[in-house]
Amino acid sequence: MSKVVYEGWMVRYGRRKIGRSFIHMRYFVLEHRLLAYYKKKPQDNVVPLKTLLIDGNCRVEDRGLKTHHGHMVYVLSVYNKKEKYHRLTMAAFNIQEALIWKEKIESVIDQHQESQAVNGNKYQSFEYKSGMDNGRKSSSSDHESQFSAAEDEDDSRHSLMRRTTMGNGPPESVFDWTKELDTDLANQSTNNQAFSRKHWRLLQCQNGLRIFEELIEVDFLPKSCSRAMKAVGVVEATCEEIFELVMSMDATRFEWDCTFQYGSLVEEVDGHTAILYHRLQLDWLSMLVWPRDLCYVRYWRRNDDGSYVVLFQSRQHENCGPQPGFVRAHIESGGFNISPMNPHHGRPRTQVQHLMQIDLKGWGVNYISSFQQHCLLQMLNSVAGLREYFSQSDERAAAPRIPVMVNMTSASVSSKKSEKLYGSSVHKRSMSLDQITSSNKNVSMMDDYSDEDEDFQVPDQEVLPPSLDSEAKKSASEEEPADSIDLSIFSGNLRRDDHEKARHCWNISDGNNFRVRSRTFCYDKSKIPAGKHLMDLVAVDWFKDSKRMDHVARRPGCAAQVASEKGLFSLVINVQVPGSTHYSMVFYYVTKKLIPGSLLQRFVDADDEFRNSRLKLIPSVPKGSWIVRQSVGSTPCLLGKAVDCNYVRGNNYLEIDVDIGSSTVANGVLGLVVGVMTSLVVDMAFLVQANSAEELPERLIGAVRVSHIELSAAVVPKLDPDPSDLPKS
Fold it and tell me: How far apart are CA 414 and CA 410, in angstroms?
């Protein structure tokens, strides 16, 4: 029997074919190459109930919170990318235990990936390790295990983190306001700010909180909606403890939220998204002003730096209609950002940001201007309530248990009296285990493997100081062809327009807007403006179809085929957007030839494992609402570790089909922005990550800016059948 990495009791979670969920306590054992579970702690040669072979192709899918008879469990699913239907699902009653298991399994997967890189590819990828002692046998009672990411390269909390799954996303757009980087600051540092001076001003200090008011372009907001306000405070508790309280809708909420009257679950969409009904207790002229209630989407995630994000946005639901005696308020955006801080005198500290942008509706808003601001400040004061709740309690021994959620009745609430709202029948989407498996095929994580989260390793041999070595070594990827390419021979259905206010077009984004690893990155973690691109972006296509469009470079007359006829090499990036109508935005990058020995040439000719570990995306939203800019952020992401990338090696071209639909979190990110796509200007930079001193500095393959894209303007491509003899690598 091989050495045990981790073991302990967990919950076996699943669904029967009739649609009902079940949970069983099982004893899980993680070894170096195997994950198995038993009915009881194994002794001698007991045969496990089920096993899963662990190798470098495995992934850990975070399915979030699932409800079973009113109790919530945190669910993880482990599967192999090459055998997508063979998976092992486990769960825990507290988030800490689930996260420990998640990181232990991922550490074993990382060890296999590293060994594959060493044995099968001479270009070794140095990946971030979480700081856990993988050689030590530990048990599930060891709650002092390190289950959050260690210090990253820039000491920042990033928006795109390694193996973080954020769920399928809400049914409608929910804006993530928690992760914006100020454009000017982003060119200097990737550190998140508690607030951005460009978009917030301090309104007042109240109850030990800083209250900020948003400074925003009003064109992006409904006229009836007030400006967003945000409370920022420090709470002496762990992120998990605060998260448990924020997610609760039971009696404990009365102890810290003075605006809470009643809350219930309307529908559980997935493990990270739910529809909630919420009644507000507002103390402003209650004899004259009707009480308010809410029906909204609540969407949450946990980042690998240990922070939690909880987002709110109103939506209509057939089972949560208007209630007699209540005015239905509307949340434009809101939620909590719960971020860990350094402990103080041995006590944990957490920064809590609570943002709310709400229209309380009714006559009071229109005739009494102070009504909305008074009620909004009252809601934001819940951060002070959290602080006082924990400051008056020393109970830290037991791990917080995921709260019980009261369920709303499945029948239409609008036809019932208000007393019947307190029913506890469960309204949940019923799906068989086969349906769940098919709907979550090959689910991966976008921003799960961040460039910022890696521990860059320096070779053991002695090297020259950076100042002396900079002139001695020159990366092959830095060499550029001297001759320019005639761009007039290429065309795409999305036009190029360099005018600043142009709409539904693309242009070349300045490489200096993106920061990449410098030549001395392995010594000082420094980054520099990217500068000139390695390849020329010659055309962009915007396609739509009833099915996913793969291998679009085979289309006659496309830029890749034209380049091939001219003896040029093309890199085609096909970003596939899922939905009832499938969309593809295709970027054609062209160069005269690949420099032998360069990192780009090695990427093109390598196997898929190497490509997945190196292809990097740096996103940015230079123009758009503040909320959307926060949602996207500007943290680099390794695409092959976040979503499924299919590589097609053709004649003088390499096509990369980036399947956004393969990732639950990528679907969630799309849900945040697709509704306002016509108001956005988005920058994307693609590059091959440098993982050794010889490969530095990093260089961009290319960068593009797409402006105010219209979904209705996409065209249906004419694609010939994919030839069976097409060479692939």
Answer: 11
Question: Which domain CATH number covers 11?
Answer: 2.30.29.30
Angle value at C-alpha 475, between 473 and 478, nearest 5 degrees: 130
Band of residue 285 on the pLDDT scale cut at 50, 70, 90: low
Residue 637 phi, psi (nearest 5): -140, 135
pLDDT confidence of 144, banded at 50, 70, 90? very low
Question: Minimal CA–CA distance to 148: which of 306, 6, 301, 348?
Answer: 306
83 and 204 in a single domain? The answer is: no
Q: What is the CATH number of the domain that holds 255?
A: 3.30.530.20
C-beta of residue 634 within 8 angstroms of C-beta of residue 688 = no
Residues 78 and 208 in one domain: no
Using CA atoms, how far apart are residues 294 and 331, in angstroms rounded to an integer? 8
C-alpha–C-alpha distance, residues 304 and 148, integer Å:
6
Residue 612 lies in a domain: yes
Least confident span in 84-88, 492-496, 598-602: 84-88
71 forms beta bridges with: 68
Residue where a domain terminates, one of 46, 81, 113:
113
Residue type, 165: T
Whether the CB-CB separation of 174 and 331 falls below 8 Å is answered with no
242 and 104 fall within a common domain: no
Residue 395, burial from CB neighbour count under 10 angstroms (0-12, 13-18, 19+) = exposed
Q: Which residues are 686's β-sheet partners?
A: 617, 702
Beta strand pairing call for 527-529 and 515-517: antiparallel
Distance CA 479, CA 324 (A): 71
pLDDT at 261 over 80: yes
Residue 142 above 50 pLDDT?
no
Same domain, yes or no, for 108 and 207?
no
* Alpha-carbon distance values, 674 to 569, 633, 678 (Å): 33, 16, 9
276-303 core/surface letters (b: 16 or more CB in 10 A; e: else)? bbbbbebeeeeeebeebbbbbbbbbbbb
CB contact at 8 A, 601 and 412: no
Residue 178 is predicted with a pLDDT of: 60
Tokens coding 585: 């935005």
Q: Could you tell me if residue 350 is inside a domain?
A: yes
Domain that holds residue 280: 200-216+224-407
Residue 494 domain-assigned? no
Judgement on whether residues 96 and 208 belong to the same structural domain of the protein: no
Count structural domains, the chain.
Answer: 3
- Same domain membership, residue 334 and residue 207: yes
Task: Supply the mean pLDDT for the chain.
Answer: 75
Instruction: Give the per-residue pLDDT at 115.
Output: 79
pLDDT digits (tens, 9 = 90+) for 326-384: 999 999 888 999 999 999 888 899 999 999 988 888 765 555 667 777 888 889 999 99
Q: Is residue 719 situated within a structural domain? A: no
Radius of gyration over every alpha carbon of the chain, rounded to an integer in angstroms: 26
Q: Has residue 300 got a pLDDT over 70? A: yes
Give the residue among 189, 208, 235, 231 at the shortest CA–CA distance from 341: 235
DSSP category for residue 128: -
Mean pLDDT value across residues 516-521: 90
Asked which of 375, 407, 439 is the last residue of a domain, the reply is 407
**Residue 422 is which amino acid?**
Y
Q: Residue 717 in contact with residue 482, Cβ under 8 Å?
A: no
Q: Answer yes or no: do 353 and 232 share one domain.
A: yes
The structure tokens listed for 507 are: 């242009």
CB 542 within 8 A of CB 494: yes
Domain co-membership, 388 together with 290: yes
Quick one: which H or E segment has residue 119? helix 95-120
- Residues 162-180 have a mean pLDDT of 51
Model pLDDT for residues 616-650, shown as the tens digit of each residue: 999 888 887 766 676 677 788 888 888 889 999 99
b/e burial code for range 530-539 (CB count within 10 A of at least 16 → b):
beebbbbbbb
Percent of the chain residues topping a pLDDT of 70: 68
